[in-house]
Amino acid sequence: MKPVRRGYWLAGIAAGAFLLTATPAAAETLQGALAKAYENNPTLTAARAGQRANDENVPIQRSQGLPSLGAQGDYSENLVKPGNSFSSPTRLIDAGGRLSVPIYQGGAVRNAVRAAQYRVEAGQADLRATEASVFAQVVGAYMDVIRDTAIVQLNQKNVSVLRTNLQATSDRFEIGDLTRTDVAQSQARLALAEGDLRSAEANLIASRETYIRLVGEAPVDLQPPPPLPGLPASAEDAVTIALRDNPDIDAADQLVHAARADIGVARASRMPKLDGTVSGNYTNFLGSASSGVPGVGVSQSQTSAAAGVTLTLPLFQGGRPSAQVRQAQARTSQAIETYVATERDVIAQTRGAYAAWQANERVIAATEQAVGANALSLEGVRAENSVGTRSILDILNAEQEYLNAQVQLVSARRNSYVAAFSVLAAMGKAEARDLGIEGGPLYDPAVNYERVRGQIWDWADDPAPQQQATDTRAVPAADAGVPADASNLPHQ
Fold first, then answer.
1. CA angle 346-350-353, nearest 5°?
2. Residue 133 predicted with pLDDT over 50
3. Quick check: 41 pLDDT over 70?
C-alpha cells in the first residue's frame, strides 16, 4: 500500500463535512488539533514503533527455514608435548566453514511464519484502534476546553450580576426599602457564586492540561467543532458497520488464525526433521609438523570436505510435544472466546454511544427551551420585584436557574459531540484516513512490513532510535484565563 496524501482523504469525504469557515490565524480547529496529535502524540508514536517490532517476527520465523553459513578459525601452540610424541606439530592454524540447509522441519517454519503474519495483521488493526482511541481522547479534551471555557464565562457573568444585585440591594436597604435579610441573602449567593467560579476555573485548567498532554501544544482560541461525517441513521446500522470495520474485532479475528497456526508449530515438534550439510576444513602446521625420522619430510597443510544429510526422528520426549499441542489448542479456544467477548464489547459500546448521542441531542433541544424560558422568567421576576410583588430571593433563584440551564446546555452540547464521535470510533470510522487529516502522507504500517518481510541480510540495521513525539516541558502551565467575548456561550 502506498502512502495516501492527507488532502486526498479531505477531498474524499462529503464536501464541507470537516471543512471550516475561515478563522483567525491564531485560532485552532478540531482538525488542526487532530493533525498535531497524529504527528506528535507519544501513545501513537510508541504504538507505531511497537508495530514495527512486531513486523520483524515474520523474517525471524522465516529465517528458521533458510540456509545458514558459518566459518571459524583457530590458532594454537602446543606448549608441552607428550614425552613419546616426536611428530606432534608445535603450532597450527585451523579454518573451517559449514553450510546447513533445512530440508524438512515438519511444518514448523511454515506455520510459525503464518502465525507471525497473522499477528502482524492483528497489530496493524490494533494500531488503527489506538489511533481512533487517541483521536477520541483529543476530541473529548477539545470539547472539554470549549465547555469549561464557556462555563467559566457564564460564572464570571453570574458573579458580575450578583455583585450588581448586592450593590442595588445594599442601596435599597440604606433607604429602608429592603431588610437586612435581603442583603444577607444577596451576600450569601454572591459568595457561593464566587466559589463556583473558582471551581470552574480549576476544571478549565485541568482540561487545558489534558489537551496539552494529548496534542502537545496549549489550546488557543478553539473554534466550534464541525459537523461529524457519516453518522448512522440507527443503532442497528451502526452495529452492522462496526461488526464489519471495527479494528478490535479485526485484531481478535487475526489472533484466532494465529493461534490455530501455533497448533501446527506445536505438532511439528514430534515430526522428523531433515537437514543437509556441506563443510570444509583447512589446517596449516606452519612448518612445525615433523615425521620424527631425520631426512623425511611431511606435508605442512591438510584440507578436507564433506557433505551429507541428517535425519532426526523423535521417538520419545517425555510427553512434551503432546503437552505443547494441547496448550496451543487451549490458547486457540481462549482466542476464540476472546473474539466473542470483543464482539460483544463492540456491540455494547456502539449501542451505548449511539444511545448517549441521541439522548444528548434531545437534552440539547429541551435545554435550549429551558434557557429561553428561564431568560424570560428572570426578566419577569425582576419586573415584578420592581413593583413589590417579588422578593430579592425570587430574583436570586431565577438567576441561579438561568445559570444552571445555560451550564446544562453547554455540557449537553459537549456530551453529544463526544458521544457522536464515539459512535464513529466504534464503527471503525474515526481514523486519520476518515477525518481528512492534512499535512503530508499518512503513516502506513504496511510500508515497513513490506520493507522487512523478505530481509535476509544480517547487517541491515535501522538508524539509531530517536524521539518522535514532542515533549511539553516548554509549554507554559495552563491558566484559567478566558476570552472577553462569549462566542462559546449557548445562544439564547
1. 135
2. yes
3. yes
pLDDT at 68: 95
pLDDT at site 298: 76
pLDDT at 12 over 50: no
Tell me whether residue 483 is in a domain.
no
Lowest mean pLDDT among 60-64, 177-181, 204-208: 177-181
Residue type present at position 265: V
Q: Is residue 79 part of a domain?
A: no
How are the residues of the chain apportioned to helix, strand and coil, as percentages rounded to the nearest 5? 60, 10, 30
Tell me which residue has cell 469549561.
148
Top-confidence residue, 445 or 492: 445
Q: Which residues are registered as beta bridge partners of 274?
A: 104, 311
Range of the domain at 420: 6-73+91-287+300-452
What is the per-residue pLDDT across 383-406, written as a single tens digit (0 to 9) for each?
998 888 899 999 999 999 999 999
Long-range contacts of 318-325 (CB under 8 A, 24+ apart): 320/269, 321/266, 321/267, 321/269, 321/270, 322/270, 324/266, 324/269, 325/263, 325/266, 325/267
For the chain, the domain total comes to 1
Whole-number Å distance between alpha carbons of 344 and 127: 20
CATH number at residue 377: 1.20.1600.10
Task: Quickly list DSSP for 232-300.
Answer: -SSHHHHHHHHHHH-HHHHHHHHHHHHHHHHHHHHHGGGS-EEEEEEEEEEEE-TT----SSTT----S
Residues 6+ apart with CB under 8 A from 344: none
62 falls within a domain? yes
CA R_g for the chain = 37
pTM equals 0.86
For residue 195, is it within any domain? yes
| Mean pLDDT across 122-134 | 97
